[in-house]
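Problem: given the chain below (475 residues), write out its structure.
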Amino acid sequence: MPNKRISQQTSITAPTSDYLIPTGLAAGSVSGQFNLYDMFRNCPDLITKSPWVDVRAYGATGDGVTDDTAAIQAAIDILTNGGTVYIPNGNFKITSPLDIDIGSIQLIGNGLQSCINQATADTHAIRLGKSTGGSVRRKLIRLHNLAILGGSGSGIAIQGEEIDNSEFSSLYLRGGTSATGTGRGISLKSSYWTKIDKLEITGNIPPPYSLTHGAPKYGIYLDNSCNNTWISRIQIDSCTDAIYFAGTSHQGGAIDGACFASNSGYGINSQVGSSYTVTSWTFKNIVGESNTTGDIYGYNFAFCTILDSQGRINLTASSRYNQIFNANYSADASFIDAGYGNRWINCGQQGSTLPTVTASKNSEWINFTDFSTWPYTILWKYYKAGTIEALANDATPSVSGSNQWLTGGTTTITDFDDGYIGQVITIISEHAITITDGTNIFLNGSANFVMGATDILTLIQKADGLWYEISRSDN
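Solution.
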């Protein structure tokens, strides 16, 4: 029988009836009925047979009390060759996972009004691909415009394994809330070319249903080879970690436009896995606020780019050759770099404490700024970890190209023949040398500083072009 629109169905025998048993199903074979008024209001021209299926046609009620698991699963299973399952307005209670082990299928709803609510603790809401127990990689699965709640404890809202070219968009997700469990909003494993867009994981479901649920332990959990993943326009609050990289070898991907706030761990965390787990990713327009442990924790980032972002960044010893542009944070001591060959350009913080940088790792810092007061102070015009150059052995040596210098000999220093306003330099003495006070260099106590080996002097060039002492270590 060809597809028919609602207005064409011959099953309607009285014009005053709001209900319809779908064509092809015998009367009494479904546990619920199809409300025409709601359907015309929300999607008036919906096709009731393949490729579109409305879950109410299979008995789903959305009343928040009736178990709608079997009805929704039947609507999914009827689309053996793919199609669209429509989830209308309602609070659809389920008690076991909904399984999607076919490709070219989408579940579409009306936003917060279309809620799939897993009522069984420690139970997932939707399973995709091999997470259902199947054995075939699936493609082109789309979940759009829905609210999905995993079971309390260790429940996962969406779990997918080996699903490719799939999309999760305009979703409100909640997962199991156990801090020691595995509750997650989205959990993906070995999945390629996934798009996650317009996602919110913030705690309880707001009106119209106002469900008290809470945020999961992990917002997005990526496990083992989630390559070429695109994540954009997301908000994840009140989890342990908003995004967690686990396993190995996540190659190529991007997070563009994300706000992470009030998570008890990190905004982005990649602590687990072998070296170089996260390779060639771009992190752009990231905002971290009040995340307890940090905002971006790069345990094993390699060849990644972080740009135009606000938050605390920590690159550990396993991180290699990353580039960070225009990153800033509104607190002191915001950045840690123990990695190798990382490059920081035009970054800054509110405070004068220099970043924690491991020596001998060849990380470069260009134009690192303290913007706590105007005019801003450039703490490092250029600094390269692990290479402390020596000053020329003359009275007015150059300090161009670096902010840390070893003394080059015993010649008394009366001035520096270059530098720039706001430059901070640190002189580490390896000789007995005198720095003179009073003309071009102004020292504490208005007296010359006779430096011995291992003494340290820190100066700043102010707007008048002269040098003023910040601190000294007289060892």
